[in-house]
Amino acid sequence: MSETSQPAHVDDYLQLGKDLGASDIHLSVSSPPTCRRFGQLIPMWEGAAILTDVDTEKLVWDFLPEHHKENLNTRGDVDFAYSTEFGRFRASVVRQRLGYDLVFRVINSNIRTLDELGMPPLLKSLTQYHNGLILVTGAMGSGKTTTLAALVQEINLTRRDHILTLEDPVEYLIPSANCQVTQREIHLHTQSFAAALRGALREDPDVIMVGEMRDLETIQLAISASETGHLVLGTLHTSSASRTLDRLLDVFPLEQRDQIRTMVAGSLRGIISQQLVPKADGSGRAIAMEILTNSPAVSNVIREAKTFMLPGIIQTGKKAGMQLMDDALAKLYTEGMITAEEAIYRAENKPLMRQLCQAS
Fold it and tell me: What 8-state DSSP symbol labels residue 76?
């Protein structure tokens, strides 16, 4: 791509970003076209010209469907799944001080299995439950959607059930295999996660996947569904098992928390917290996971509101497959997969991680 040439349509940028192996493409006012590759934002080509407000406005109105144009004018932002001949993308268009910004997340059309992702065997055992709550957590861009899709696909391939997914927007397209898979998109097929969950219980699902548990009503309905014979999988933007449980419980009014703790203590099956860490050789990113599975000790800690004790329980539960985030990071470092700087930066106990890295 030359300095003077500028793609005329969004699709041209998306094709280029996909060819570069990017996870996200950013088209923002007063910045050159950039993409996120292996976790780092980089220009899409050398000497790329800065996009003006006129450039991004033309890109927006040339590709946006009519009903989304109305929403953008009304709300100032739209999020939806965008499909082309060469792939699917999660599109976000926002109006900001300088004009319009466009951000696209590349959706891998190939649903990778847990084995292909190199996930611990314990994750497969979580998919064998017929009720309860499984949470996949992490920051934005930490691969939660990919892990969740792999868990759903494992169920799809090994069981004979009805799987219902509720997403905003639908990212991975999951064809029915041994299971019947129904995928609903928030704002397109239903008003909200809470509305979809209320309706879900009348649709005879065995497994319910909730793309994001973002408010009190959604979390309450998800916990109730997990108690009434459904396996519920969901995501939260939290960085560890203890913070996940704190976040889950703190949304409830004080007078309800004892009851909710008891419900979660009984229904929780597992929490998977993850990070994607740039590899030391620059060839991609490695996954670091904290894994908690329920046990009598975990249930007791949840009921008694002593989640600060969970790291110790995870540490002593290594033989059962549990794992602390710091142990996962330390393993990646000792294997030469990630740098000491990354391990220390992402660790919960930074002084201890620094000592470990210096001793190696």
Answer: S
Instruction: Enumerate residue ranges in the chain where pLDDT < 70.
Output: 1-5
Please tell me what DSSP assigns to residue 359.
Answer: H
Question: Do 81 and 189 contact (CB within 8 A), yes or no?
Answer: no
The pair of three-digit structure tokens given for residue 191, joined into one six-digit string: 């008003």
Are the C-beta atoms of residues 59 and 9 closer than 8 Å to each other?
Answer: yes
- How far is it, in rounded angstroms, from Cα 33 to Cα 51? 7
CA dihedral angle for residue 103, residue 28, residue 278, residue 84, rounded to 10 degrees: 40
The SS3 of residue 289 is strand
Phi, psi of 217 (to 5 degrees): -65, -45
State how far the alpha carbon of 95 is from the alpha carbons of 35, 60, 313, in Å.
20, 10, 47
For the segment 148-168, what is each residue's pLDDT rounded down to a tens digit?
999 999 999 999 999 999 998
Which amino acid makes up residue 71? N
Nearest 5°: phi and psi at 345? -60, -35
* Closest of 223, 209, 234 to residue 263, by C-alpha: 223
Q: What is the pLDDT of residues 278-315, one digit of tens each?
A: 999 988 899 999 999 999 999 999 999 999 999 999 99
